[in-house]
Amino acid sequence: MSQIPAELKYTKSHEWIRLEADGSLTIGITDHAQEALGDLVFVETPEAGQSFGSGDAAAVVESVKAASDVYAPVAGDVIGGNEVLADAPETLNDDPYGEGWIFKLKPADAGELDGLMGADGYADFLKSEQ
Amino acid sequence: MAQTTPLYQKHQQAGAKLVDFAGWDMPLHYGSQVEEHHAVRRDAGMFDVSHMCAADVSGDQALAFLQYLLANDVARVAAGKALYSCMLNEQGGVVDDLIVYVLDGFYRVVVNAGTADKDVAWMQARSQGFAVDIKVRRDLGIIAVQGPNAREKALPLLPQAYRAPAAELGVFECVGDAQGLIGRTGYTGEDGFECILPVDDLPALWDALVTAGVAPCGLGARDTLRMEAGMNLYGQDMDETITPLQAGLGWTVAWQPEARDFVGRKALEQQKAAGQLPRFVGLVLEGRGIMRAHQVVDTPAGPGEVTSGGFSPTAGVSIALARIPRGDFDRVEIQIRNKNVPARVVKAPFVRNGKILIDLPEASS
Predict the structure, then answer these.
(1) E strands of A12-56, at which residues?
(2) What integer pLDDT is reported at residue A65 of this predicted model?
(3) Of these four, A105, B12, B32, B337, which has the most CB atoms within 10 Å of its CB?
(4) How far apart are CA B305 and CA B308, in angstroms?
């Protein structure tokens, strides 16, 4: 069973979102997602200053198998991408909720977060997908 | 309902991620595709390839039939040897690629899983007028043991009858009979054996190999290994619309003797005479990203296409096989998601016997 930390928010496209103390968001892909993708070999993170609408493709993760888009869970401006992943994409497999974060976003409207799933909701969603 | 091999339970017990492959439930990996890849390059790994199909060809005209059926010439190899060949249609397109093992008094052909039914029907139809018998051997399964230490680890575990002769096999040689076969062949660019044995004997051999330290490897690693070795994959690098001359397989077409009439020969001769054949090349990505099949290759002579692409765990860069227009250039660009990423044209293989054979881009580490 994959890990689903209780304090995070989740999307149906398997991103996780952590609301930081300063109001910024840290975004990555879930344990379930990294496991389904397999060994990651390339990650393309967005650059600081890029703006995304909710649901826009913001990053790309490529495993030995295939490429997948990572979507902006809410609208906002990119604060920065995780540069560690350029040289060590496997970090995302090893620590998807920690060192393997993908990018940080300044949300346009913090209220948009309310539309995302909590840990229980995401767990139910995974069950329904199987 | 998907078909399963005699090793299906072993895969389940080992925690394999099972996926549909040509109607078969097969292991994609057992945890990490990259680790499995390295196991084969550095030590020893094994693959259940029992979904592939063996068929025995015998009879007075077995040799004449295979000389007609195949683009390579079985008469070139003696008993106890293996031969790689394409089987063509009249247009020169590849119906399948296969291995023929030449045994004492008969031939054992091993074809791809996805094309097996089509291949057998094709062979039966071509055999009209030849005194031959084609017998599908679904009672046999295949374990490929590959890697620098594969032969040493596997030898003591092989059936007694094959053990001594298997120890003496040269590359692309085999020992076999009606009950089984050990060939010093493979699809990884490493040394090793392919063990074609009765399905009931496979689980015990698999367990013994695990105990001997041979790592179970899935079809995912098999694909990255064969790509590094510059080996074509049927259905991806060539198919019924592509001839061997368009897929880097010209070396497998035996033009001599000229009198040998094989299926597709006329079409190949015409294609060769017309010239302007594409180049089938290796590519090494010099920018960031991963090349994938069907991406467009921009060259000074026009567009080409990636036929197999991915990440090379051994070299740590993205590599590909591609069909590109003729021309004297070695710099191309790959269209990856709205960006053009530079790549260099190289001669495959990329990796053979554990060694990287290409120059790596300076930016990579």
Answers:
(1) 15-19, 25-29, 40-44, 51-52
(2) 87
(3) A105
(4) 9
- CATH number where A87 lies: 2.40.50.100
| pLDDT of B324 over the 90 cut | yes
Q: How many domains does chain A have?
A: 1
**Residue owning tokens 């993170």:** A45
Query: Is A6's Cβ below 8 Å from some Cβ in B?
Result: no
Q: Which fold has domain B8-49+138-228?
A: Gyrase A; domain 2 (3.30.1360)
> How many other C-beta atoms are found inside a 10 Å radius of the C-beta of residue B261?
9
How many Cα atoms within 13 Å fall on the side-chain side of residue B305?
A: 9
**Average pLDDT, rounded, for chain B:** 97
Helix (H, G, I), strand (E, B) or coil at A85: helix
Domain presence at residue A119: no
Domain range list for chain B: 8-49+138-228, 278-365
Average of pLDDT values for B306-323?
97
Q: In chain A, what percentage of residues exceed pLDDT 90?
A: 95
B40-48 average pLDDT score: 98
A121 lies in a domain?
no
Question: Does B289 sit within 8 Å of A42, measured CB to CB?
Answer: yes
* Assigned domain for A43 exists: yes
pLDDT digits (tens, 9 = 90+) for B251-264: 999 999 999 999 99
Q: Which residues contact B189 (CB under 8 A, 6 or more apart)?
A: B225, B226, B228, B229, B230, B231, B349, B351, B352, B353
- The model's confidence at residue B365, banded by pLDDT at 50, 70 and 90, is very low
CA-CA distances (angstroms) from residue B297 to A64, B71, B233, B249, B338?
A: 21, 29, 19, 20, 13
Expressed as residue numbers, the domain containing A60 is: 9-110
Q: In this structure, what token pair is assigned to residue B347?
A: 């001669």
Best B21, B30, B285, B290 member to test A by mutation, with max A CBs in 10 Å, is B290
* CA–CA separation, B54 and B99 (whole Å): 10
Residue pLDDT, tens place only, B106-128: 999 999 999 999 999 999 999 99
ipTM: 0.86
pLDDT of residue B363: 53
B311, B312, B314, B334, best to mutate vs chain A, most A CBs in 10 Å? B311
Query: Which residues in chain B touch residue A60, judged by CB atoms under 8 angstroms apart?
Result: 337
**B278-365 CATH:** 2.40.30.110
